[in-house]
Amino acid sequence: MRKLKNSELDRLSVNDFKSVKKTSLIIILDNIRSLNNIGSVFRTSDAFLIEKIYLCGITATPPNKDIHKTALGSTDTVAWEYIENTIDLIEKLKTENIKICSVEQAENATMLNDFEVEPNTKYALVFGNEVKGVTQNVVNNSDVVIEIPQFGTKHSLNISVSCGVVVWDLFSKLKSNNL
After folding, report:
1. Residue range 54-91, pLDDT digits in tens
2. What whole-number distance in Å separates Cα of residue 65 and Cα of residue 36?
3. How far is CA 73 from the centre of its chain?
4. pLDDT (tens digit, 9 = 90+) per residue, 1-40?
5. For residue 51, how many other CB atoms are within 10 A of its CB?
6. What pLDDT is stored for residue 177 in this prediction?
7. In this structure, what DSSP letter does residue 143 have?
């Protein structure tokens, strides 16, 4: 095996990225305090053609040098919008028939490996604060809560890692089902 050069990766240009068909996934970052986590989510969103990121509450917005440090330019490709109140956003997205999925540990949560994507459905994935997680009010207003199975002693993942795991899983399921 030979490691590929950057010139061999067939990357999209910024203009091509903006016009290519996106994955039926939206990300909502609710009160994320770490600028590096925000930048990492942008980079993951670029990699998997996420339709849009909503930045809510105390979540910082681009342009910001600390977000840029981990986003590596993906704040220029991935569509984003700041909405102060997450519940207002969720109510708006529900009127557009978007299924709200909080990623959290909760009673009756659906384990990620058991979550099945539905045809013709767009999903909004809510990721919460690094310490407090997704607020109970947001959980209450979600259509489903998805939990990442964990087997060690900590039972928590960094928000950017959680985002990568969940987005990859749903992206794979959507693509394998041609959705």
Report:
1. 999 999 999 999 999 999 999 999 999 999 999 999 99
2. 10
3. 17
4. 999 998 899 899 999 999 999 999 999 999 999 999 999 9
5. 18
6. 81
7. S
Percent of the chain with pLDDT over 90: 92
Please report, to the nearest 10 degrees, the dihedral formed by the alpha carbons of residues 172, 174, 175, 179 taken in order: 180
The highest-level CATH class for domain 16-176 is: alpha beta
Token match 């959290």: residue?
A: 104
Whether 35 contacts 42, CB under 8 Å: no
- The whole-number pLDDT of residue 48 equals 97
Contact 28, 125 (CB under 8 A): yes
Most distant CA atoms of the chain, gap in Å: 50
Sheet containing 50-56: order of strands: 80-83, 50-56, 23-30, 122-127, 98-103, 144-147, 110-111
- Could you say which DSSP state residue 25 is in? E
For residues 96 and 71, give the distance between their C-alpha atoms in angstroms, rounded to a whole number. Answer: 29
| C-beta of residue 17 within 8 angstroms of C-beta of residue 77 | yes
Torsion sign across C-alpha atoms 151, 139, 87, 123: positive
CA distance 85 to 141: 13
**With contact defined as beta carbons under 8 Å apart, do 64 and 33 qualify?**
no
How do the domains of the chain map onto residue ranges? 16-176
